[in-house]
Amino acid sequence: MAQAGVPYAAVPRGSSDGRVHFSDEVHESDADVEDNGLFEHRETMEVADNDTLYYGMSLGTRRRMRKGRVFWATVVCLVVVSVVGIFWLYFDGINWMQRSKKRNVILMVSDGFGPASETMARNFVQQVHGLPVGYQSPLDEILVGSSRTRSSDSLVTDSAAGATALSCRMKSYNGAIGVDPERMPCGTVLEAAKLQRNMATGLVVTSRITHATPGAFSAHVTHRDMEDLIAEYQIGNYSLGPMVDLMFGGGRCHFEAGPHVNSCRTDARDLLSEARANGFRTLDSRSDFDALDANSAQSLPLLGTFAASHMDYEIDRDPKQQPSLAEMTNKALGILSAATKNTNSGFFLMVEGSRIDMAAHTNDPAAHVREIVAYWDAISAVRAYVDANPDTVLISVSDHETGGFSVAKQLGPEYPEYLWNPFALEPVKHSIEYVSSKLLGQTTDSAKQYEFVRDTVFPKWMGIKDASHEEILAVAQEANSVQLRQLLSTAISDRAQLGWATHGHSAVDVNLYAYGKDAHLLRGSHENTDIGDFIVQALGLNLELITSLIKNDKVVQDTPAIKQAWMGRRDLDAPEHHPHMH
Predict the structure, then answer these.
(1) Rounded mean pLDDT of 399-404?
(2) Model confidence at 101, in pLDDT bands (50, 70, 90)?
(3) What pTM does this model have?
(4) In this model, does residue 485 exceed pLDDT 60?
(5) Are 241 and 194 in contact (CB under 8 A)?
(6) How far apart are CA 245 and CA 300, in angstroms?
C-alpha cells in the first residue's frame, strides 16, 4: 500500500525505457492511490520514495522551489526591461514615437498685433455689422495665454529677433535672421522638420517673402537688410539645399536680376532662373495662382511672388490682381496635404499677416483693422482644416506690438471723453501708403493739388466730410513723405479717437492663441522661445543637429544691402524707397 499523503501520483505510461512520468494530481490517501487501479506492484511507489531520498526533498517541494525561481526571474526581467525602457524614452524614445506619428503644425504670426488691436478690431466688426455685444472673433475663441517678446539686446524686439525666437527657440539681437547672438547660424524648426521628419514645408506671407519673419525660418544672415542673400537661401543655395517646398507672398524684386527696373537686387544674379533650375515652379500673377490645383502636389517645390515688393494692403487690394491671405493659406493647406497624403510625415506651415505691422508703423487705423480682419479670415480657414484633421495644431502669436496703440485718445487739455468711434474707419477706402503715393510729386500746381485733396482725398478716399481748410492746405502743401503720413494719420485717428504712442514697436506682451492637438500645453504666460520649444517637442526635432550642419554657411551678403528707411522699413509708399523700381 502506498503511504498516506503522497504529494504526487506516479503514473506508469508504459514507456519502453521503464521511466516513471509524473502528473500534477495529488492523492489524499492510500485508497486514492489504490483505487485508481493503475498500480499492480508496490515497487512502483518505491521509485518515488527513492526519488525523494536521492534529492533530499520531495518532488512537490522541488516543484514549488522551481516555481519560485521562475517568479523571481520574471520580476527581475520586468525590472530590467522597465529601466531600459525609461532610459530609452528619456533619451530618444519620445522623439521616436513623435516621429512615428503624422503631425501637422501651422504657426501663424500676426506681425505687430497687440491686445489693443484685437479689441479695436472686435469693436469695429461688432459695431459696423450690428452684431451682438458678446460677439467673439475667431481669435477670441482660442485664446490660451500670452507671450513675452524681449530680444537678447533690448526689451523692445524687432521682427527679425522676434521671428528667430520662434524659429530657433533662441533669443537673439534685433536684426538677427536665423543667427544666434554671436552671429552664427542656428537651426530652425522648418529645416529640422524637413530633414528629420521629411515633412513638407511652406511659407505664406503678405510681405516680401524675403522679409524678416519668413527669412528667419528659411535663412541665416547677420542682418535683416540682406534680403538678396535671404532669397538665395530660400531657393536652396546653401549646405542643406532647398528646404522650403512652397512660398507664397511678395518680394519678386529680390529674385530678379539687377540692376533692372523690376529688380531691387544689388547684383546681376537671376534667382528665378536659378530656382527653376533647382526644380521650382515659379508664379507671378493671379491667373498663375488660380490655375494651381489645390489638391495636387505635382507643382512642388513652388515659388509664388505676386508683387514686386510687399503685397497690397487688404484695403487697397484688387482681388483680380492679388490673392488674399486666406486664399493663399487655403491653397497652401490643400497642396501640402496632397503632398503628404500617403506619408507619415505631415507638414509645417508658417503663415504671416505681415502688413498688420506696417499699417501700425504708419499709424493707419483703417488699414490696420482691415489687415486684422483679413488675418481672422485666414485663422478661420486654418481652424476648419484643424477640425477636419485632428492631428494638426494651430498656433497664432505676434512677434511684438507696434505703434503703442490704444483704443482711446485725448484730443485736448480738457478731461477726455470716454468713447471711440469705429464708424470713422468704415468709409475709408485706401491706406495712407496709397494716398501719400498719389499725392507726392504728382503736380506742381498748388491750386490743383488743393482741389484734389479737398474733392477726392478727404471725402472719397478717407471718408472725411468735415475737413477744415487748414487740414486740406497742410496735406496739399506737404512734400515730405513722413510728415504727410503723419497728417493723414492724425486726420483719421482723431475722428476715431484712437491713440498712437510711437511709429515703432513697444514692449507690451502679446496674446497667444492655440487650437487643436495639445493646444492646452500653451496655456499661461510664456517667453516667445517657449513656442519654438513646443514645436520641437511636438515633432521630436533636434535643432542642435541642424545647427552643426550649417555652422559654416555664409551669413553676410557679398553685395551692399539696401538699408531700410523710415521706421525700420523701406518702400512703404513705393518710389522714394525703391532704388531701382518705378
Answers:
(1) 98
(2) confident
(3) 0.82
(4) yes
(5) no
(6) 6
Q: Cα torsion at 558, 264, 503, 169 (round to 10°)? A: -50
% of the chain exceeding 90 in pLDDT: 75
Element (DSSP H or E) covering residue 348: strand 347-352
Q: Any alpha helices (H) in 56-187, and if so which ranges? A: 59-88, 94-99, 115-128, 159-167
Calpha distance 169→216 (Å, rounded): 11
Q: Is there a contact between 265 and 212 (Cβ–Cβ < 8 Å)?
A: no
> In sequence order, what DSSP letters do the residues of 278-323 get, joined into one string?
TT-EEE-SHHHHHHS-TT--TT-SEEEE-SSSSPPPTTT--TTTS-
Residues with a catalytic annotation lie at 159
Question: Please, which contacts does 37-44 make with residues 24 or more away whose CB atoms are closer than 8 Å?
Answer: 38/11, 38/12, 39/2, 42/1, 42/2, 44/10, 44/12, 44/20
Who wins on pLDDT, 59 or 390? 390
Are 225 and 565 within 8 A, CB to CB?
no
3-class state of residue 99 by DSSP: helix
- Cis peptide bond N-terminal to 259, omega within 30: yes
Looking at residue 71, its pLDDT comes to 67
Residue 36 CB: number of other CB atoms within 10 A? Answer: 12
- Find, among 287, 169, 267, the residue nearest to 217 by Cα: 169
What is the pLDDT at residue 1? 42
Which amino acid is residue 302, in one-letter code? Answer: L
Q: Are 505 and 360 in contact (CB under 8 A)?
A: no
CA distances from 456 to 2, 315, 430, 464, 467 (A): 123, 17, 12, 10, 12
The Cα–Cα gap between 221 and 460 comes to: 44
Looking at residues 481-509, what average pLDDT do you find?
97
- Three-state secondary structure call for residue 261: coil
